[in-house]
């Protein structure tokens, strides 16, 4: 098993599949009256969050607690080199406290990589800047596999602000590893340069959502911040929604079996309409539940819970 | 003053000869010289070059003496084979007045290890809004001739035009940090495949090329001298080639790191590889090497940029950009160009001395010439150990790399600043 989970690229197909299979076992725990396993008793998991992200933090917290780990929440929002303790000093502090795993969310891309140089325990990237969010990709893959029965050969459209999306990067890497085909859709201003060679050859790019929809099994809508229009990525929220938002008529262009995903939090009326978000095709609430199972699997496998 | 008789040295790669240094100048050359009072140095197998001249050095004093001082930077320079360095203006306070440039100049004289030639800021506080007192700096004891807002681009085209025109009165030159600021907001590394993969905001090549294109046209229009700092892209080379063919008075520099390293280094997220302009692609490196050999790029300049440990041992986005360069530049040049001594002397000594107007530097060792020269052992190889560097900072991107060449001795006006590879003071 790998020691850290920093990027979707850290996972080969066998490891990723093992995590998804383990997550399926973990999911059965959630159905029990006592939602707890003793697997990580006596181990310490630190949630080190430099950004507000209540949903990701409580998902990791629930995952660690269900495995009986001791959980320390370290909210370091606002910390930076300029004010307060450096990342390295924080790392050394956590190290001295005996953290077995550090789950880190950070506004700077690559911060988890830096952290991994300074701690002995496992580092799990819970979202770094505009880089990656590998457990989100795992929970998305888990959700697709649960709904559609497979990943190999699926066609997945990822729609929206790919440029600033850590979810998109991790999903492209992981889905390609697991045999799915990805098409990235968005205005050209929000698709990063050289995306296909950078992440996974064979990844397609389209600027036209309507032509892509009939051929996909999954459409994943990314959160688009309205403020991006102030930096001229698109002219207005209204124009964005008209060209790239998923509404009822567009949803009906999808094949019968296709599902609609969103990593949350949603901008209803921007990238997705309430009609779509609340439809039976939407997996948005399931994704949240699956997140706990997948994060349990990740912590369990990284911390070697399987060979204890 | 001690005289030195250097025996059996190859002057800029020529057949071995003796050099007698006396009273600050090269007194005599020839085979079998005799000077009973002189200290004899056996230089068999060594090459003598005119002392190197760096057009782009950050000495950090005044303001960040924890990262570098004029003295520590001068020592690093001497050990790297330099006899003159041009100190950039982005200190604190900024070198935008006669007072500050004179202070830096005086500190350089006191250290006495290299000639420290201050560069003056183009605009007050490097703010890009109004001209600093360029004439006062030119007339000061520091005799400033190069003006640069390095670290910042003189982005306002009208201000750039005025600066280019104004310095003609005292044969000055504007050294432009070519970076269109609106195209590089928040930029962290070269915009391309690697920045996309790493999720780091891109610094597009066009942000450099667009400013160079604008400024060569401005320089042509007003008939002024223009120097381009740290050229980093293949596209910039093409713009410069075109401008030179039209007869524009433009010169350009490339750094050792842009001749050797690529943006792939960023995949470590180790900010020791963060620099501005950023490391580019292998294709850019190839184009820069060719341009340097050809002369489209005139010189190698280090952009020696010391930073304190805490400014590099952090997240990439929060780290300051810049790398050490003085103590490794000649080794990188040897690695990239091979032992083409005349070319190395041209690109690292003669031409930079000419651009900077440093008349006593950049002259090949010959009778009557000021003895600003170095002895190089090209056969030696060494492993770069950050802790052993003379700079106060440790941010070298070449840590634990094995590089060719070693500076055996450096002479400044006939006095050794480095002997047997060690700083004399």
Summarize the structure.
Chain A has helices at residues 13-30, 54-66, 87-96, 111-118, 134-148, 166-177, 195-199, 209-212, 237-244, 248-251, 274-277, 284-302; strands at residues 44-49, 70-75, 101-106, 122-128, 155-159, 181-185, 204-206, 218-221, 259-261.
Quickly name the level 1 CATH class of the largest domain in chain A: Alpha Beta
CA-based gyration radius of chain B = 21 Å
Strand percentage of chain B lies at 15-25%
Give the topology string of chain A: H per helix, E per strand.
Answer: HEHEHEHEHEHEHEHEHHEHH
> What class would the helix/strand composition of chain B place it in?
alpha/beta
Protein chains sharing the most extensive interface: A-B, 27 and 24 residues
CATH homologous group name of the largest domain in chain B: Metal-dependent hydrolases
Strand order of the largest sheet of chain A: 7-6-5-8-9
Any overview of this molecule?
The complex is a heterodimer of chains A (308) and B (425). Chain A contains 12 helices and 9 strands. In chain A, helix 1 crosses helix 5 and helix 1 packs across helix 12. Chain A has 308 residues and is α/β, with parallel strands linked by helices. Chain A has helices at residues 13-30, 54-66, 87-96, 111-118, 134-148, 166-177, 195-199, 209-212, 237-244, 248-251, 274-277, 284-302; strands at residues 44-49, 70-75, 101-106, 122-128, 155-159, 181-185, 204-206, 218-221, 259-261. Chain A starts with 12 loop residues before the first helix and ends in a 6-residue tail after the last helix. Chain A is 39% helix and 15% strand. In chain A, strand 1, helix 2 (54-66) and strand 2 form a beta-alpha-beta unit. Chain A has a 5-stranded parallel beta sheet with strand order 7-6-5-8-9, with helices on one face. A 4-stranded parallel beta sheet of chain A has the order 2-1-3-4, with helices on both faces. Chain A has 2 domains: 8-132 and 288-307, Aspartate/ornithine carbamoyltransferase (Rossmann fold, 3-Layer(aba) Sandwich); 134-284, Rossmann fold. By secondary structure, chain B is of the alpha/beta class. Chain B has 2 domains: 4-47 and 367-423, Urease, subunit C, domain 1; 58-356, Metal-dependent hydrolases (TIM Barrel). Chain B has 11 helices and 19 strands. In chain B, the strands form 4 sheets. In chain B, strands 1, 2, 3, 4, 5, 16, 17, 18 and 19 form a 9-stranded mixed beta sheet that branches. A 5-stranded parallel beta sheet of chain B has the order 9-10-13-14-15. Chain B has a 3-stranded parallel beta sheet with strand order 6-7-8. In chain B, helix 7 (234-245) links the parallel strand 13 and strand 14. In chain B, helix 1 (70-79) packs across helix 2, helix 4 (157-166) crosses helix 6 (205-222) and helix 6 (205-222) packs parallel to helix 7 (234-245). The two termini of chain B are 16 Å apart. The chains are: A alpha/beta (308), B alpha/beta (425). At the A-B interface, helix 4 and helix 7 of A face helix 5 of B. Chain A: GO terms for molecular function: aspartate carbamoyltransferase activity.
